[in-house]
Amino acid sequence: MENWSKKCGFRTNKELNRAAGVSIRSVLNMLMENLDGADxxxxxxxxxxxxxxxxxxxxxxxxxxxxVDAVRSAKYNSYAPTVGILPARSAIAxxxxxxxxxxxxxxxxxxxxxxxxxxxxxxxxxxxxxANILLPRPGFPYYEAxxxxxxxxxxxxxxxxxKSWEVDLNAVEALADENTVAMVIINPSNPCGNVFTYQHxxxxxxxxxxxxxxxxxxxxxxxxxxxxxxxVPMGVFGSIVPVLTLGSMSKRWVVPGWRLGWLATCxxxxxxxxxxxxxxxxxxxxxxxxxxxxxxxxxxxxxxxTQEDFFSKxxxxxxxxxxxxxxxxxxIPCITCPHKPEGSMFVxxxxxxxxxxxxxxxxxxxxxxxxxxxxIVMPGCAMGMKNWLRITFAIEPSSLKExxxxxxSFYQRHAKRQ
Length: 418
Prior knowledge:
Layout: H1 2-8, H2 13-20, H3 24-33, E1 44-46, H4 61-73, H5 86-97, E2 109-112, H6 114-126, E3 132-137, H7 142-149, E4 153-160, E5 166-167, H8 169-175, E6 180-186, H9 198-211, E7 214-218, E8 243-248, E9 261-266, H10 271-275, H11 277-286, H12 293-305, H13 308-329, E10 335-336, E11 346-351, H14 362-373, E12 375-379, E13 388-392, H15 397-414
Parallel strand pairs: 1-12, 3-4, 3-6, 6-7, 7-8
Antiparallel strand pairs: 2-9, 4-5, 8-9, 10-11, 11-13, 12-13
Helix pairs in contact: 2-7, 4-12, 5-12, 6-7, 6-11, 13-15
C-alpha cells in the first residue's frame, strides 16, 4: 500500500499540513482536546466565528420561513444547474448591485456551497504552472490550504497594525511579477476586525491594475461594520480592475451551517470573460458539488424580505461585544490591541511573552488557557502572525465578559514575578 501511494502521488496529512500551514479546524480540535475534564465551568468559545449557538444571535424568522416554504413547495427536489438555480442567481445579483454603480446579471453569479467553495473554485481556476498569488498576513488560513492543494505559490503581503491594518501596498508591488495572477483582500477583515476605507480600496484597485492582476475580494462579512468606516464592496472599482467577489449568507444572516455562498464576477469591461476565466469557473463547477437546492430556492425570499431591523439588531450586538472586548483587553497587561475592531467578528491582539513566567509562544498560551480556564482563543500562528492571538467576540455579552475575566485570571496566575 505504501509503494502504491507513492506511485499515485498521494500526500499524507503530515505532508499536507506542512504545505498548507495550520488550519482553523485542526487548531480548534487540538485546543478542545486539551480541555481539563475536571473543570465543570462551561466552555467560552472565543476561537471561531459562529455566534449562531447563542439565542441573541438567532437568524430572522424570514429566513426560517423561506426555507420551510421552499421545502413544502416541492419545487426544489430536483438537481440544480451547476451554476445555481436562476431565481437564486437573480436575487444575489440584485442584492450585490444595490451597492454598485452598474448592474450585475444572473450570468455574473455562481452559487456555491458556502464561501469556502467559492475560494476553492477561484484558486483552482487561477492555478497554472509557475503561477503565484498574493495573500494577506494575517489572513484566513483556508487560502493557504487550498493553494497547497493546487500547487499555487503563495506570496504574503503584510497588513500594517499601526495603520488600522491597511495593506502594505509597497510590499504588494515588490512581491508581484509576471507570474502573479491575483491578490486577495478580506473586507471586513477576518482576523483583524478592520474595515477598509473607500480611499484605501481605490488604491488597492489602482495598484492591481498597474500590476496587471485581478482582485479576489472576500466579502463574507459584507455590511458587518459598526465603526466609523462603512462597508464598501471592492466591486465598486470593477471598472478599474476585474474583481472576483466571494460572499455568503453565513455571517450576515447568522446561518453558517446552511452553506449558501456565491462567486460574482464584478467586471463591467468584460476582461474576465475574454480571458477565459469565466469559462473555467463554469467548467470547474461542472465537476463540483452544489448547495442544497431547497436552500437555493429560499434565497430570493430571504434577500428580498429580510427587514433592516434584523440587521440593525445584529450590528448593535456586535458593537456592544466589540466595546466589551476592547475595554476588557486593556485590563490584561500581557495582550495589547493595536486597533479597536470595527467590523466582522474578530480582533487581533499582540501577546507580550516577557510578562509571562512559563509560556513559550502563542500556541502554548492557548493550550494552557484551554486546559486551565476552559476558554478557547486562536493562536496567531494559525493566521500567519506568531505570538499574536485572534479573539472572536461574537457571543452572548455576559459570556464574553466571563471569558475575558478568565483570561485576566490566567494572566495573573502566570505573570512573571518582579
